Amino acid sequence: MVQINLPKNSQVKKGKYYKDKTDSKNLRKVNIYRWDPSTEENPRIDTYEVDMDNCPSKVLDILNKIKNEIDPTIAYRRSCAHGVCGSCAMNMGGKNGLACTTPHAEIDGDIDIYPLPHLKVKKDLIGDLDGLYKQYQSIEPWLKSNSNSETQEILQSKEERAKLDGAYECIMCACCSTSCPSYWWNGDKYLGPAVLLQAYRWIVDSRDEERQARLKKVADELKLYRCHTILNCTSACPKGLNPAKAIAEIKKMLATANI
Amino acid sequence: MENKSPLSPHIQIYRWHISSLVSITHRITGIINIVVITLICLWASLLLLGESKYETINLLLNSSIGKFIILAITWSFSFQVLSEIRHLIMDFGYGFEIKTTKITGLIVIFGSLILTVVFYLIGKIFF
């Protein structure tokens, strides 16, 4: 259901202000969403003054700098720092992306960092993605083949393989799904762009033999057709993929009975 | 734990861009248009009650507020039509590249304003 306002326990308060101690001339203010599960308090925005002369170019570098030099209590997910693992997905400057591939120079003014939108927060910048993973599981993202394939290699032509381009690269960082207003309002039923892109990836895979069953499974008013081509997903994707187009292709297959 | 966890901010912080603006406006104009069509039907059925009732509405629509309402309705219809065409093209699977969506979105926004003026002038000159 559409609920524009945040619930009472989620309303964001003003937090602490960490003044710069390095006497740097090149400072930027970084506003970070904080919530500590061990207290009863509401989430707050802490502001940090960061010395940009000694900070590398990405938003993740700022976070590391803050954690190492200013405030070690801040919590966020990160791993590879090369845009491959998808751990550091968060909302920066009002747009979802990977902190490790988003240059802070692209953000005007103060740098606002929030967790991925409309998730239950576990701590600070860490959102709970369990629901999304369950939905991912529900589309059965593995090859289904019943024929004599167990002993034989399943061959695929170059054209058939090319259909998977733009779908297999997804790293499941959830930037797209959590940017989608439809997913905000109906996240319990609507599968969301990330999972639908993966559903598409298995539907168009020539080696998979359950194409029809897969299509039938997503052909649902809530699971699929909540996509209204708002296109927040495509503009958020840090890998440059196009979930909105994949969803449109699924709709098209269903509409033209191309099954 | 489950109930205690706050919900992270969503629409409050997410930056608007052209296609999300066009999408929400498409919804709003859609709702306005349904209401307006109902009102137009009621207005037409007022004819059955005789000339005086019809005259009242006529006077209202010729006042400056009435003219503003008519312009607003014209824009709302223009926007809906153009945006619906954009949706139709997307249903065929075209125009999903970020750059294209920006261009088609701008066409919808400015086109609806131009269409409004055109419709208004047509109404003014020919009726």
Please describe the biggest sheet of chain A, giving its number of strands, its sense, and whether it closes into a barrel: 6 strands, mixed
Task: Tally the beta strands of chain A.
Answer: 8
Distance between termini of chain A?
32 Å
Query: What is the oligomeric state here?
Result: heterodimer
- Measured as a percent range, the helix fraction of chain A is 25-40%
CATH topology of the largest domain in chain A: Ubiquitin-like (UB roll)
> Globular, elongated, flat, extended or rod-shaped: what is the shape of chain A?
elongated
CATH homologous superfamily heading of chain B: Fumarate reductase/succinate dehydrogenase, transmembrane subunit
**Rg calculated over all Cα atoms of chain B:** 20 Å
CATH class categorisation of the largest domain in chain A: Alpha Beta
Mean pLDDT level of chain A: 94
What is the N-to-C order of secondary-structure elements of chain B (H for helix, E for strand)? HHHH
CATH homologous superfamily placement of the largest domain in chain A: Beta-grasp domain
**pLDDT < 50 runs, ≥5 residues of chain B:** none
Order the strands across the largest sheet of chain A as they lie in space: 1-3-2-6-4-5
Poorly predicted segments of chain A? none
- Report strand % of chain B: under 5%
Hey, which two chains have the biggest interface? A-B, 46 and 29 residues
User: How many structurally independent domains of chain A?
Assistant: 2
Characterization of the model:
Chain A has eight helices and eight strands, in the order βββαβββββααααααα. By secondary structure, chain A is of the alpha/beta class. Chain A has two domains: 8-127, Beta-grasp domain (Ubiquitin-like (UB roll)); 130-145 and 155-255, Fumarate Reductase Iron-sulfur Protein, Chain B, domain 2. In chain A, the strands form two sheets. Chain A has a six-stranded mixed sheet, with helices on one face. Chain A has a two-stranded antiparallel sheet with strand order 7-8. The radius of gyration of chain A is 21 Å and the shape is elongated. In chain A, 39% of the residues are buried. Chain B is mainly alpha-helical. Chain B has a single domain, classed as Up-down Bundle (3 helical TM bundles of succinate and fumarate reductases). The longest helix of chain B is centred in the N-terminal third of the chain and has 29 residues, at 18-46. The mean pLDDT of chain B is 92. The chains are: A alpha/beta (259), B mainly alpha (127). The interface between A and B is large, with 46 and 29 residues.
